Amino acid sequence: MFYLFCTIHLHAYSSDEARISNRAGIQKAASGDWEGAIDLFRRARAISPGDETTLANLASAYNNLGVKLCRNEQYRDAVACFLNAKKIKPEDLDMRFNLLSALVMIRDSERIEMESGEILALRPNDSNVILKVASAFSKVEDDESARNLLEKILVNSPENPKALYQIGQLCYKQGNTTDAKFYLEQARENSPGHASACLLLKKIEREDKIESKYLKERSINFTLTYCEQISSELAQSILEVLENAYTKVGEFIGFYPAQRTEVIVYTPHEFSEVSTLPYWAGGLYDGKLRIPVFPNQATIGNLQKVVFHEYCHHIVNILSAGKCPLWLNEGLAQLAEGTNPEKARTLLEPYSSEKIIPLTKMNENFPDTEDRKNVERLYAQSLVATGILIADNGIDSVRNVLKALAKRDKLEDALFRFTSQDIRSLEEKLYSAIETSDFFSASNNKMTPDLEESILE
Questions:
Q1: In the chain, what is the greatest distance between 2 CA atoms, to the nearest angstrom?
Q2: CA distance 37 to 43
């Protein structure tokens, strides 16, 4: 959530030349020309450095330019503006929260921690301030810092519905539904119109009807919740596959999450009750890995493919802050599970380039229907496009694209910066691969032949 405060209350008098520049700056500001206003207010400050009116106007202009840049998704430039405003008016919390929000958008964890500490030092006992800082920590996956702050609020204000709801969210995310229900129910009691708490409670209640009797096992990096039909031996095998995914998919993408990942294994029937996916879906990632398993038919090979696929979604989601386009997300997940690009080529062979959906429209055309053939074609397109991207540029460049997306860069900008190509040129290579029925010749460099072997042994 952004806390953007547009400070337009500019003051209008100073002395002589400074006053003239100040008034001209106000006129620029009134027309929305914040850059022009800043130039004039800086000129006024140079003439009269200690004038409070000029300083207040300059800080407001920097802040408003930062707000404008955020609305245009130019977050790095916005951070620079908010920092300038902070230097002039460090006590202004509205401006400080604008800075903190922009830092969250570019995922600058180090500066988020520093800025949060400074804000809390200004208002150490203000529950609204603490709530906003806790929210910032949650958005960058620092759940421990977020919860510590929220619990501090509850010490002094045990009925605070916002703090109760946020702790309930964190508990649910970590798989502790008992505590999640407790805090969410408290939030609902203290704020009967708390729609978010009510919705999450309904979701938990629906899942609890199935998962309440499930068993739990933990490994170093995973918490596994599984149905009673799964034997303890199979559960241990699943954990081994998960830890293998942590290592090998981590090696492939070049990223290892710090937080323990929640995984839930269902029977196929129970999986269909907690998801709206078609019967043939192999799994679901919604912040947790949800996997259907036939207890008497499960093999390590089949489990490995599904686990590696869904776990790759988890890594991509964290790296990109949920901003990865669907075609790239699904392409990476298929490579992680070891899908052979030749299979994708075969699926796409009957189609001409005119029948291929542009990558920019893939998100709206990936249907949650039972049209399996159409979905397979979309998956195949995703695999070929992602394979070309990696073959031409390497996985490190793709990882940098994901990180840039997390910092709110536009996909076109991130692709061009790290791969020197745009969506259109990638689509042309995709069309060429389909037209020639040759996946590899569409790229300037062949994909490294040991790519699959580096993921799956």
A1: 88
A2: 10
Query: Which residue matches tokens 């951070």?
Result: 79
What's the CA gap between 32 and 177, in Å, rounded? 49
With bands split at pLDDT 50, 70 and 90, how would you rate the model's confidence at 437?
low
- Rounded Cα–Cα distance for residues 444 and 111 (Å): 40
CB distance 64 to 34 below 8 Å: yes
- Per CATH, the architecture of 1-106 is what? Alpha Horseshoe (1.25)
Within 13 Å of residue 36, how many CA atoms lie on the same side as its CB?
11
Dihedral sign from CA coordinates of 204, 205, 206, 208: positive
Token pair in block for residue 83: 């920092």
Q: Minimum mean pLDDT among 240-249, 270-279, 284-293, 381-390: which range?
A: 270-279
Per-residue pLDDT for 217 more than 80? yes
SS3 call for 9: coil
Burial of 21 (0-12, 13-18, 19+ CB in 10 A): buried
* Per-residue model confidence as pLDDT tens digits over 280-310: 677 888 888 999 988 777 777 778 999 999 9
Enter the pTM of the model.
0.71
CATH superfamily of this structure's domain 213-314: Collagenase ColT, N-terminal domain (3.40.30.160)
Q: What is the DSSP string of 32-74?
A: T-HHHHHHHHHHHHHHSTT-HHHHHHHHHHHHHHHHHHHHTT-
Query: What confidence tens digit (pLDDT) does each residue in 248-257 have?
Result: 999 999 999 8
Mean pLDDT, residues 135-143? 87
Q: Is 301 exposed, middle or buried (0-12, 13-18, 19+ CB in 10 A)?
A: exposed
